């Protein structure tokens, strides 16, 4: 595979043994050079002799050569032209020493322009001068080769870097344009690599990148190219996949599957068992005339789509993705200013006791009052906030608001806040949260963080550690959307949850079939047996309420009792309840406000 990672020069080797080929048609000149070689003591020489440029190029193709020595004129051939042809045919890394009979400035300039490293006057050359010239020429070329290699290869993994990738990709695009065959660009991003760096250190992270590079490099064909694009991002370039798009996609999918497999296989690094995965964005191209930067952008967009689809996925670029990206960029730009402009607001949805529907707690639900779009639901902007690293600032602001609400609503047992995995697993999350709690003088036992299964299953060990840290400081946790994933019971058993929230999808038909009721009853019984508080989400009818109460569900939340409302509205609602005034919004006409 053409990834440049095999044996590039990283330092200048000592010059102890030199393989020299002499291009000369005059035996007397050969004897002269041989005498120079024989008179040198600092280097072991291997001298080969050819008599024509054709023989020279054949020799260079098949034999390892450290330097070429030739006369200014070889028969009717010009030594300067031969040196120039060497560079044109890919042998520019081999130093050339030119012998002349007289000092000539024009020859000197022409020789340097052709790539000749040094030239010597025959009559003045001694063995020591010849040896010194060879040392200088070889060292200079090796230095040039090392600098060139380092400029085009990644220093950590040895793979091609962005500059060399650009050269390969431009050649691939030109070939695709000529032949009409499909080529493919795969943009690979490691999933959860930041967690490895944060928990095990950057040294382990670097070792992981090296091993990932080695595994990916072992996939594919000789003409394929693997490059490190930066950080934990790699690019895999495939060429000549045929003119049939379906067959080309099939071939690319096979390679993508192999990449995912070798990436998911655990790595043993300094006694650590490290597990990661990767998301892959793919763009196919043939003769559509796309620009270099456009192909990278397309594969990058497809990679983010793969991440949003659940990570450890491969996704082909389609035009609609770019339209989505444009919309996302506009939303992200507005979202960056939303906090500064006070466009975000924390609504509260009360949680009531199943026995008498008295208020017990509330969940914070974020709303964005966009100046042009109107009220924007979290389902429309949280994904962008997470993807473009805005979620941390937003959620910290929400936690501050929740603490203020708790201090002003002493009648509530707790207020819950939804926390994203990106924020929760940050190394500084515990300290930042406790700093907010202390600064607001809030009782941490009244603050509950809601976490979902999909957030936790990626790093349950890290989540457990973080939860124990916060639990020791009084903060409690709720497992949100219980039952919607495959690992809910595992998480309930192994992580320190105080509260379980049964997902609305199970509540919707709890009153419609005995099987649904039995299933919900089993969740309630399991949670109660583990000493956890059970909350049923999305309760909308009296029939649902009656069944949940009969099955001993502790707390209830939904439009049956109250819809999400502003803080001031919630204060009024609580005051009305304190006066024993029941408020049941008309479910048939209530506007559904999804979290």
UniProtKB/TrEMBL annotation:
The keyword Phosphoprotein applies. One of its GO terms (molecular function) is catalytic activity. Its cofactor is Mg(2+). GO terms for biological process: phosphorelay signal transduction system. Residues 181-319 form the GGDEF domain. Residues 19-137 form the Response regulatory domain. Residues 328-578 form the EAL domain. The modification 4-aspartylphosphate is found at residue 71. It holds the Pfam family Response_reg. Keywords: Phosphoprotein. CDD domains: EAL (cd01948), GGDEF (cd01949), REC (cd00156). NCBIfam families: GGDEF. This is Putative signaling protein.
């Amino acid at each position: 595979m053409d990834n440049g990672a095999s044996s590039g020069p990283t330092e200048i080797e000592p010059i102890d043994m030199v393989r020299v080929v002499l291009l000369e048609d005059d035996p007397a000149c050969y004897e002269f050079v041989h005498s120079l070689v024989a008179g040198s003591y600092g280097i072991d020489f291997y001298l080969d002799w050819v008599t024509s440029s054709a023989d020279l190029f054949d020799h260079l193709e098949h034999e390892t050569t450290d330097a070429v020595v030739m006369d200014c004129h070889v028969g009717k051939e010009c030594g300067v032209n031969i040196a120039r042809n060497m560079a044109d045919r890919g042998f520019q890394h081999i130093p050339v020493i030119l012998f002349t009979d007289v000092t000539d400035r024009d020859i000197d300039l022409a020789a340097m322009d052709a790539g000749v490293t040094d030239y010597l006057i025959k009559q003045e050359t001694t063995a020591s001068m010849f040896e010194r010239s060879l040392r200088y020429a070889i060292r200079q070329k090796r230095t040039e080769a090392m600098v060139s290699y380092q400029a085009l290869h990644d220093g950590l993994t040895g793979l091609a870097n962005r500059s060399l990738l650009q050269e390969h990709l431009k050649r691939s695009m030109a070939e695709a344009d000529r032949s009409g065959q499909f080529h493919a660009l795969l943009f690979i991003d490691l999933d959860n690599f930041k967690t490895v760096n944060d928990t095990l250190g950057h040294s382990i992270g670097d070792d992981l990148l090296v091993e990932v590079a080695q595994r990916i490099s072992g996939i594919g064909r000789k003409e394929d190219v693997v490059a490190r694009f930066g950080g934990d991002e790699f690019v895999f370039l495939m060429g000549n996949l045929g003119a049939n798009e379906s067959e080309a996609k099939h071939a690319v999918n096979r390679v993508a599957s192999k990449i995912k497999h070798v990436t998911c296989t655990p790595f043993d690094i300094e006694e650590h068992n490290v597990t990661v995965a990767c998301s892959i964005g793919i763009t196919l191209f043939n003769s559509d005339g796309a620009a270099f930067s456009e192909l990278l952008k397309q594969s990058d967009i497809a990679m983010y789509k793969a991440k949003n689809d659940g990570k450890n996925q491969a996704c082909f670029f389609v035009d609609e993705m770019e339209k989505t990206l444009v919309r996302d960029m506009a939303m992200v730009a507005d979202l960056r200013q939303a906090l500064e402009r006070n466009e975000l607001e924390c609504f509260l949805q009360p949680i009531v006791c199943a026995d008498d529907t008295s208020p017990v707690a509330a969940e914070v639900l974020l709303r964005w009052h966009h100046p042009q779009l109107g009220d924007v639901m979290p389902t429309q902007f949280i994904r962008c906030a997470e993807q473009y690293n805005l979620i941390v600032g937003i959620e910290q602001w929400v936690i501050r608001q929740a603490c203020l609400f708790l201090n002003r609503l002493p009648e509530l047992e707790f207020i819950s806040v939804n926390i994203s995995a990106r924020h929760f697993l940050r190394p500084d999350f515990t300290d930042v949260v406790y700093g907010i709690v202390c600064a607001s003088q809030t009782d941490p036992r009244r603050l509950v963080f809601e976490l979902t299964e999909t957030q936790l299953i990626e790093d349950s060990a890290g989540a457990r550690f973080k939860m124990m840290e916060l639990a020791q400081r009084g903060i409690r946790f709720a497992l949100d959307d219980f039952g919607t994933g495959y690992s809910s019971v595992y998480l309930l058993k192994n992580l320190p949850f105080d509260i379980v929230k049964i997902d609305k999808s199970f509540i919707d038909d709890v009153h419609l079939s005995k099987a649904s009721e039995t299933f919900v009853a089993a969740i309630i019984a399991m949670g109660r047996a583990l000493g956890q508080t059970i909350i049923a989400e999305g309760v909308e009818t009296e029939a649902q309420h009656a069944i949940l109460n009969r099955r001993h569900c502790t707390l209830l939340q939904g439009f049956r009792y109250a819809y999400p409302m502003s803080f001031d509205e919630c204060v009024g609602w609580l005051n009305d309840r304190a006066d024993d005034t029941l408020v049941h919004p008309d479910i048939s006409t209530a506007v559904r406000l999804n979290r």
